[in-house]
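Can't paste images in this forum, so I'm doing it all in text. The chain is below; anyone willing to post the predicted structure tokens underneath?
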Amino acid sequence: MHRPSGARARLVFPLDFPNLTEARPMAERVAPAVGVLKVGLELFVREGAAAVELARGLGLEVFLDLKLHDIPETVDRAVAAAITLGVRYLTVHAGGGRAMLDRAASRAAQAPDPLTILAVTVLTSLDAADLQSLGVAEPPRDHATRLARLAWDAGVRGFVTSPAEASALRAELGPQALIVTPGIRPIGADAFDQKRVATPARAIADGADLLVVGRPIRDAADPLAAAHAVVAEIERSLAARGAS
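Text version of the structure:
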């Protein structure tokens, strides 16, 4: 399993913009302080492969966050298409089931360049009450762990989970799992629409490998300085954890 090396490589900045005209200036501005640029649904639906090329052109790894959830054949073909784009990470929903996850992992393993499938467990916008409304009686931590184990058994080695579940997934899956945590908020930052959040230091201490930090950087008076501050916190946390 490929692992990010160093603090900067662990910081993911999402390009949550409606088009490349707005995304490009911010991507170029924060590029010196981040390791990965995340391309999500809004930008990808509007711009397609050009959004991926923007990130690759800046020399950064690309996290294509499409959260695929469909029949196994469709997801298999979508992963194959992502391979041609040269992305480094691609998300699928763990709730898509064993067969879908197996096909995604198997297809990714055939990529000429490393492609890590990331299974999304429980969205950070959901809490226990939301899960109950969906018919899921178990709390988010237990549900995320169960979904992660399902994905692991299907051959997936990367996972997206909130900081609140990171330590549980690390304990369940061990050191080989790659854990990605959205919902990262530096001290004093607004949680916005996410319900299970943590500081960069807490997420690293709980075993996270990649941290997704969006609005606290994007909306800062100086986005590059804000990104550097997050990297510095990650670096201190890695030193305290004895990692690199």
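Residues 190-196 have pLDDT under 50 and may be disordered. The first strand starts at residue 11 and ends at 14.
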